[in-house]
Design goal:
single chain, 79 residues, alpha+beta, Arc Repressor Mutant, subunit A, three-stranded antiparallel β-sheet, globular
């Protein structure tokens, strides 16, 4: 199981969810948590629905999404 430095709760394992980013090696993908938050589910509601999660898992998921979305545009010459 691999993690990205600075993100201890976001893990990658080729044997779990086809290597997608998951929470602490569980079969709970980061994309699921982001989708729930984007659809206005509260942290409390998410934790009720997924009792194996911890508030820090959701916080780190949001930090990870923010990190992924940092724009690094490579512009062709002449732009």
């Amino acid at each position: 199981m691999n993690a990205i430095p600075g993100f201890q709760r976001i893990t990658f394992d080729s044997q779990i969810m086809a290597g997608r980013a998951c929470i602490r090696g569980m079969r709970i993908p980061v994309s699921l948590i982001l989708n729930l938050v984007a659809n206005r589910m509260t942290v409390e509601e998410i934790l009720q629905e997924y009792p194996d999660l911890e508030p820090a898992d959701i916080e780190e998921t949001l930090r990870y999404a923010a990190w992924l979305s940092q724009e690094r545009l490579l512009r062709p010459e002449g732009w």
